[in-house]
Amino acid sequence: MELTYRLLFSVGIVTLIFLALVGNALVCLAVYFSRNLRSRVNYIIVSLAVTDLLIASIAMPLWLMFEMTHFENLSPNALAKVVGFWNFIDMLGGITSIANLVAISCERLWSVWYPLHHRRNMTNKTAGFIILSVWIYGIFVAVLTACLSNWNSFPIFCSVMGFFLPLLLIIGAYVIIAVIVKKTSRNVISNRENIRINIAIIVIVLLFVICWTPYFIALLLSYYSDSFYEFLLENLWLRSLLKFLHYSNSCVNPVVYVIANAQYKDGFKIVIQTGFKCCFKKEINASQMSTGHLLIRGPSFSKNSKTIINCSSKSKKQIFINKKRPKSDAETLCGPLTLEDKGSEFFHNDCIYQTDEYPPNDYCIEPGFTLKTDYLSDPESFKEIQMSLTRTSYI
User: What pTM was estimated for this model as a whole?
Assistant: First the structure.
C-alpha cells in the first residue's frame, strides 16, 4: 500500500511540477518575446504565471519531499521552520493565484462594460497598481495565517478571504460579461464566437471550483469536526487528492487563458523558434505584425514598396480618421470613409483610431477591416489602408 502510494504520488507530483513549470514559463516568455501580447491584461496573466511558478518551484517540491521522507533527519526546530516556510509559501502562492484570477475577471468586466473608460485609464501604471495590490493582498493573508494559526476563527477567515469571496467576484464578473456579450452578439459577434466565449467562461469558473472547493471545505470541516479530522489523518489518499487538486490549478491556469486568446499560439511559436535558434526567412505579412502598425499601399509607391507608421506603446500617438478635420500631417489620416457604421473607435497598443463619433461599445470593428481615404498628406493620391485588428478579449 505504501509503496504503491509513493510510486503513484511521486509520478503524479513530478508530472504536475513539470507541466506547471513549462506552461507558466511559456506564458511569461511568450509575452516577453511577442509584441502582440504586450497588453495590460497579459501583464496580469504574467503575474498569475509567476505565482504559479512560485508554487511549482517551491511549494510542490517541499510537499514531495515531505511525503517521501517526512523530513525524518531534521531536528524538531528545523522541522518546524521548514514546515512553517512551506505553509507560508503555500498560502502566499494559493491566495495570490486566486487574487490574480479575480483581477483578470474584473479587468475583463471593466473592458466590456465601460470600454472607452477602460481604454483611457487602463495604463501601464494602472496594471502595475493592480498587480502590486494583488501581491500585497496575498502577503497580508499569508502573514496573518502564519501569525494567527491558533485563532479559533482562522479557518473561516482563510476560507472567506481566500476562496468564497473571490469565487463570488469571479462568478459575478463573468456572468455580467456573458450577459453583455449576449446583448451585443446579434449585431457584431457571430454565433460561433458567442458560443466560444461562453464555453471559455464556463470552463474557467468550473475549473476554479473543482480545484479549490474540496480543499477549503475540508479545511473548515477538519477544524470544527474531530471525527472528520481523524478520518482525514487516516485516509492518506484523500488527503493527497485534496492537495493535488488545488496544486493542479497552477497547471490549468495557463491552458485556459491561452485557449481563450489565440495570440498566445503565435507567441509560443516565437518562443520555440528563439529557443532552438530558428527563424523564418519569409517576409512577415500584415496579419503577423503588431496590431499597432498600419500597412500603407498606394500609387506613389513602387509595386512592392511598403511604408509602416509605427504606433507602438512608446510613442503613444493618436491617429484620427475624421473627414471633418483634414490635416497635412503624415500621421493623420483624413478623407471620406467607406464605413457603413460611422461613429466607430477602436484602440490597439496606445493608438486610438476614430471616426466621427464615439461608439456605444467597442465591438464594431471586424478583423481585416478595410478603410479608404481620398488623401494621405498628399490630397492627389489615393491610399488604401489595410489593418489587421483583433476584437477585445473577453476572457
Answer: 0.68
